[in-house]
C-alpha cells in the first residue's frame, strides 16, 4: 500500500511531469495515485513565478511551495489543547506566576493542596509547554524563576584557608552527620545586601533539614550589627531554647561574620550558645541551601534594591512566603508542613 500522504520526492515528480505537459490522469497513473489526490496537490502547490527572459508572470505548480504548506499544515494535527477555553484556570495560573512569584510546579501543588477545581487538569510538563507556546498571555519563560543549574561541581582537592580567618573553626571540623540533614537545628547563615548607594542588609538563616528560613533586617553589613542581631534573638527566646534551636551555624568568611566569639558565646553566661563553622573561600556550594533561599528572596527583593525602604512587615511576608512555598524536594510540601511531620 502506498503512503497515505505524498512524499517530497513525489512532489518533485509531479512538478516535472506537469511542466512537461502531462495530464492529471497521466500523472496519477505514473505515481499510482488517484486523480483527486493530484488535483488537490496541484491546487496546493500553485504559485506565481516570473519568466526571466520575458519578465512575464505565469502560474505553475512548485514542489517546494507544496512541501512547505504540507509541513506547516501538519503542525495543526493532534489532539486539541486540554486547556481549551478554561479562562478561569489560565487567569489563576497567570496570577500565581506573576503576582505570587510561584513556579509552574508550585502552582499545581497549590491547586492540589487546597483542592481547587477547574475544568482543566494538566501536569507540570504540559503547563511549561503552554508557557513556551505563549498560551498564557503576559507569561513567557523569562517571567519564570531561573531554572536550577544541574552542572556537576568539581571536588575540592586543595583545602584553602581564608587569610583573614585562619584561627576559627573550619567546616572540616564540623560533625559529618550534619551532611546527612537528618537532625534539625543545623543552620546556614548569610547576608543579602542592598544595591549601590542603598542602605539596609538582610541577615538570613536557612535550616539544613527543613529549609526553614529566618530573615532579619539589620542596618549594615558589619560585625557589630550581625552580632547584635543574634544577641536579640537569644534575648527573645532564651539561652536554652537558642542552644537547642541553633545547634550549629555555618557561614562564609565575610568580614561581618568574623566576630566568632560574639556569635558563639551567650551574652548572659560565659558559655557557648552555638557552634560556628566557616566554609572554604569561594565555596558557596558548602552553603547550598542558603544560596537557593537567597534566590527566593530575590523574587521579592530584586538585586540593586534599597533594602532600607522595605518595611519589617514586608520582610516578614517574604519569610512566611518562603516557608509556605511548595517544594519539589518534599513532594510538594512546604518547609512548615515538612517540619510539622517531624518528631523532636
From TrEMBL:
What is the superkingdom listed in this entry's lineage?
A: Bacteria
Q: Name one GO biological process term.
A: DNA recombination
Keyword Oxidoreductase in record: no
InterPro entries with a match to the protein in the record: Integrase_cat-core, IS30-like_HTH, RNA_pol_sigma_r3/r4-like, RNaseH-like_sf, RNaseH_sf, Transposase-Integrase, Transposase_IS30-like
Coiled coil: which residue ranges?
Answer: none
Q: Does the keyword Thylakoid apply?
A: no
Q: Name one GO molecular function term.
A: transposase activity
Q: Which residues form the Integrase catalytic domain?
A: 178-343
- Which keywords describe this protein according to UniProt? DNA recombination
The record's Gene Ontology cellular component field reads: cytosol
Q: What is this protein called?
A: IS30 family transposase
